Amino acid sequence: MIREVRAKSILNRSSIGDYVINPYVGCQHACIYCYAQFYARRWGRTEPWGSYVEVKVNAPELLAREIERKRKGIVYLSSMTDPYQPVEMEYELTRRLLDILRERNWPVLVQTKSPLVLRDADILGGFGQARVGMTIVTLREEVRKVVEPGAPRVDERIQALEGLKEQGIGTFAFIGPILPGTSVEEILELVEALRGKADVLYFDRLNVKPGLKSKLDTAMRRLGVGNWDRNLDSYYRRMKARLTEELGSTGMRYVFVY
Ligand code: SF4
Q1: What is the DSSP code string of 98-119?
Q2: Which tens digit of pLDDT belongs to each residue from 102-144?
Q3: Please, what are the domains in the chain?
Q4: What does each C-alpha distance from 154 to 9, 129, 134 come to in angstroms?
Q5: For residue 199, how far is its CA from the centre of ligand 1 (angstroms)?
Q6: In whole numbers, what is the pLDDT of the chain averaged over residues?
Q7: Residue 249 C-alpha to ligand 1 middle, in angstroms?
Q8: Which residues are paired to 83 by β-bridges?
Q9: Ligand 1: does its nearest atom lie under 6 Å from the Cβ of 137?
Q10: Residues 82 and 29: beta-carbon distance below 8 Å
Q11: Residues 6+ positions from 194 with CB-CB distance below 8 Å
């Protein structure tokens, strides 16, 4: 269900960057591990995650006003939704917001799972500072279909990163959450696939928000990963230590955010 709404504000303070813009509420990518669904539920949304999107149709108008009153800072798109989910094809909200930010020369940090971002390379290439990242948790399509059922294919995301880089836009890959049961070798294979396409790699762990466990149980069962939530902390400690050992020799820049 897609519903048009009018938001009260759009350029909000954030711990990632200085500001965050969420042009939509809800996300058609429907990732099972998405923490935004936990907050959406807290705000009273009870429908299944991925089944609804609210489109903040007045977002460009709000931004044009708010940007005049605020001190310039890095704007992150987006923390609670994917700015390039399918509905963006029709509404072009993200595109219009970027255009306003570029006109005022505000720096942006865009994170998505969709190659649709390439549509806006003409705008992104005109920023003094713009970085665009793809979130990728696996190279395996059979895993992607289970954990990110509404999101684009992984190979398309990698190609999109390459396309952005070719157009001189700064890129990063966000490898997170690393899913329990993933081997170090699988992650290294993904790192290799990203060589030359992502300027920086970020790694993150899974944080199991309340209410998400049963969804994760079902998904992990489908993927054949038993007892996935046992000793999670030590799994991520070992993963970090092993990856740190291996990544040094790749010459690639990386950051663990956990
Ligand atoms: S793409 Fe991002 S916001 Fe959308 S469902 Fe997946 S994790 Fe959540």
Answers
A1: HHHHHHTT--EEEEES-GGGGG
A2: 999 999 999 999 999 999 999 999 999 999 999 999 999 999 9
A3: 2-256 (3.80.30.30)
A4: 33, 26, 10
A5: 22
A6: 97
A7: 32
A8: none
A9: no
A10: yes
A11: 136, 158, 161, 173, 201, 252
Is the entire prediction scored with pTM above 0.85?
yes
Q: What is the mean pLDDT of residues 21-39?
A: 97
**pLDDT higher than 90, residue 211:** no
Token output for 67? 């940007």
Residue appearing with tokens 């696939």: 193
- The residue ranges of DSSP E strands in the chain, in sequence order, are 2-5, 12-13, 19-20, 24-25, 53-56, 75-77, 108-112, 130-135, 170-175, 200-203, 253-256
Q: Which of 52, 113, 134, 215 to mutate to test the pocket of ligand 1 (most atoms within 8 A of CB)?
A: 113
What is the distance in A from the centroid of ligand 1 to the CA of 65? Answer: 28
Q: Is 36 in the pocket of ligand 1 (CB under 6 A)?
A: yes
